């Protein structure tokens, strides 16, 4: 029995607009992917004005989130897990049924922070403490300088980030997030 919620765009108050924007974005990505295929890339100069990026498939993002949630459950932690793409856009949010109301938003912001700064949020938390030269970063909107968010990387590329909120402390959140990355590491490393 699954005891978590998947928040879809259709449940969002502006779901129709978001869905329309998503469809338009996916169509653009499909065209760009076709145009960047080897057939067209052979004639592209090395200083081409565009480039190709790798991103997590929704199924891969979900697999990572489910693994992180399962790891936290083994320790009796009620948490929320978020996976974002390389731009920080949410792909998956899972919230266990007894996780605090704040955990979903916190997980999303931790994942956004890990993707944006391309480093674990626990590292950012240390580097932005009061009195340090980068302490002002904590004042930026959405920055969650607290442990629990990890970038997802493969073959030197940032693919996205995963974050957990609700375990007792950033270290426990980060351990659960790391298990999510481990669950997909074989899937993403050689693609």
Shape, please?
globular
Q: Provide the helix percentage.
A: 40-55%
Q: How large is the share of residues in beta strands?
A: 15-25%
Q: Helix- and strand-based class?
A: alpha+beta
Mean pLDDT: 84
**Helix-strand pattern, N to C?**
EHHHEEHHEEH
Low-confidence stretches: 1-44
What is the straight-line distance between the termini?
32 Å
Query: Biggest sheet, open or closed, and with what strands and sense?
Result: 5 strands, antiparallel
Count, helices: 6
Rg, Cα atoms, Å = 18 Å
Strand order of the largest sheet: 1-3-2-5-4
Q: How many DSSP-defined strands? A: 5
What does this structure look like?
By secondary structure, this protein is α+β, with helices and mostly antiparallel strands. The chain contains six helices and five strands. A five-stranded antiparallel beta sheet has the order 1-3-2-5-4, with helices on both faces. Helix 3 (about 60-75) runs antiparallel to helix 6. About 35% of the residues are buried. Residues about 1-45 have low confidence and may be disordered.
Index terms:
single chain; 191 residues; alpha+beta; 5-stranded antiparallel β-sheet; 44% helix; 16% strand; disordered N terminus
Quick gist of this model?
This protein has 191 residues and is of the alpha+beta class. 44% of the residues lie in helices and 16% in strands.
Question: Topology, please?
Answer:
Blueprint: E1 4-6, H1 15-35, H2 38-41, H3 58-74, E2 80-85, E3 90-96, H4 103-117, H5 121-127, E4 149-154, E5 157-165, H6 170-189
Antiparallel strand pairs: 1-3, 2-3, 2-5, 4-5
